Amino acid sequence: MPRVAGPRCVRPSFAVRAEAAAAPRPVIRQNFEGRVISDKMMKSAVVRVERLVKHPKYHKRMRLSKNFIVDDPENAAEIGDTVRIGSIKPKSKTKSFEIMEVVRKAIK
Questions:
Q1: Which residues of the chain have pLDDT under 50?
Q2: CA-wise closest residue to 35 among 63, 72, 77
Q3: Torsion angle of the four alpha carbons 32, 39, 74, 71, in this order, in degrees rounded to the nearest 10
């Protein structure tokens, strides 16, 4: 089958691409609220975030959870605390969230 000559795709010049790259991007942060389940690491903690989802077939609400290793530079969080975490630039292989605030301290 012969190639059909059509309009060529014109690439934008380098200057136009540089302007587009220099434009500020909006910061999108994921925010979750969860419970601290481990604080045995230095400047880190493990936070369990739970969410309720509806089963697609049976329509029962299920509780799903995920553990996040979060940055805690002041070692402020203790086991049982409810904390709010937010996404950051990755600090290590597993740490890409930080504790933004301690919502409620655990009752001892």
A1: none
A2: 77
A3: -50
In angstroms, the CA 2 to CA 25 distance is 44
pLDDT of residue 27: 73
Q: How many other C-beta atoms lie within 10 A of the C-beta of residue 22?
A: 7
Cα separation, 55 vs 43, whole angstroms: 37
- Quote the tokens at residue 102: 């301690």
Distance linking the first and last C-alpha atoms of the chain: 78
pLDDT at 88: 94
- The answer to whether the predicted template modeling score (pTM) of the entire model surpasses 0.85 is no
DSSP conformational letter for 42: T
Q: Distance of CA 27 to CAs 24, 93, 100, Å?
A: 9, 21, 16
